[in-house]
Each structure stands twice: as structure tokens, then as C-alpha cells.
Amino acid sequence: MDILTLVGLIAGIAIVTVAMLADATLATFFNIPGLMIVLGGTIAVTLVKFRLSSVSGSFRLALSTVFREKTDRPLALIRNVAELARVVRKEGILGLEAHETDNDFLRKSITLCVDGHPPEFIEEALLEDMHQRMERYDVAERIFRGIGESAPAIGMLGTLVGLVQMLNTLDDPSSIGPAMAIALLTTLYGAFIAQLIALPLADKIQLKAEDEQRNMTLIITSIQNIMKGQNPRVITELLSAYVTPEQHQALTQEREA
Questions:
Q1: Planar angle of CA 26, 6, 189, nearest 5 degrees
Q2: What's the pTM?
Q3: Range 39-66 average pLDDT
């Protein structure tokens, strides 16, 4: 699990909640009409902008990636593919059939190689897979950014509604309070949803997508060179651009050992 994402979300919500409760109760900040305006309006705008299938798929993608640390480290991948290259040099492509890996993209790459497909087909298939995965990440990011943009705007609409209600009922002092609550709390709700939930998740989805694309590019480059029969040492040196100088030095020491 990506514990920092969960800790960050909980900490942000907790800090704001504690600030609210400093001189008031939670009920003071709870207004059903205002909450309905912001939540209902944000959902409605999101469904206007995007397909329902895209929205539901994006939430599933966020839950499966943002809160789980499942992306392999480049250093581990380089060591893995270097081992694959050594196997191919000794046993040929079919020697990869017994190799097991938790990385589904690398597993697909190995399957394509073992099945005897030409290098051009393998490269095309892997690039298309990467493109489709990045497209799903991009849609998910745009949806959460859209929510982050819509929620404050809907909150401002709720504020205007509350102000109009308040101005229309100035002769009735008892109705001014509820109208002001809608006017102020809807802005709070919109900012809360955008700044503490939607926009941070959009940024984390973007980061996860970049990590995933880097790893897939590394794997594609590795498979291309393995299919060419390239020396494992050369492959490791070629892939050293994906790691830090310290990790590169560790790889060099491992090769020389």
C-alpha cells in the first residue's frame, strides 16, 4: 500500500476538521442543502463532461493505483531483464518460458517472445499496450482535475443562491441564518473537495502514470535488445539512464563482481 497517500489525505482532512472544531461543533459546518448543491452539482457537471463508464473506470483506477504501491523500481527491473538476457544467451528465447515475474507488462513481453513472434510485431504490440494504459491514466487524471475545477465553481453558485435567499428574506430575521449558512458553507465544501481530495488525487495519478510509462519504456527497450541477442552487460549499461548515479554505480559493481 502507498501509505503516504493515505496518510496525506487523512492528515489534511483531520487538520481542517480540528480547525473547524476549535470554537464550534461539527454540526455548525453541516448543511444538507449546501452539501446537496455542491455534491449534486459536481457530479452532474462531471457526467456532462465525461462518459459514465469513464468516470466509474477512473475511480476504480484511482483506488487500485493511488493507494497501492505496485510500481516496480527501475533498479529491480534492470536486474530482472539482465537475468533474462543471460538466460537467452545460454538457452535461447524458449528459456524464458520458465521465468516468473509479478510485472504483468514484462510477463506479456516474455509470452510474446516465447510464442515466436517477430521483433517488429512484439514492439508494436507492446507500444500499443503502453499507449492504451497511458490513455486510461490520462482520462482518470482529467476527470479528477475536472472535479477539482467544478467543485469550487459549484460552491460559488451555492453562495450566490444563499445570498439571493438572504436578500429576499431580510424582513424575516429567522431565515437569514440558514440562508447565510448555504452562502458560506457551499464555498467551503467546494474548496474542501477540490483542494483536499480531487486535485491531490489527480496529481498522484499523473505521478503513477509517469512511473508506469518509464517502466514500460524500460521493458520495451530491454526486450528489443534481448531479441537482438545483445550482451547482458551492454543492456545493463544502456538501461542505466533510468536509475540514479548511485544505483548505476551499484549495477557496475555487480557486473564486475
A1: 35
A2: 0.84
A3: 91
Q: Are 186 and 214 in contact (CB under 8 A)?
A: no
Which of 124, 117, 76 is closest to 93 using CA atoms? 117
The closest alpha carbon to 163, from 174, 153, 175, belongs to 175
**Helices 74-91, 104-114: inter-axial angle, 10-degree rounding:** 20
Long-range contacts of residues 127-134, Cβ cutoff 8 Å, at least 24 apart: 127/220, 129/105, 129/216, 130/105, 130/213, 130/216, 130/217, 130/220, 133/212, 133/216, 134/209, 134/212, 134/213
d(CA 11, CA 6): 8
Grid cell for residue 107: 510477463
Q: What contacts 154, CB < 8 A, 6 or more positions away?
A: 37, 38, 41, 42, 45, 186, 190
Q: Express each pLDDT in 157-178 by its tens digit.
A: 988 888 887 777 777 777 777 7
C-alpha 141/C-alpha 198 separation (Å) is 9
CA dist list (Å): 61 to 65, 101, 142: 6, 22, 13
Query: What single DSSP character describes residue 71?
Result: P
Helix (H, G, I), strand (E, B) or coil at 102: coil
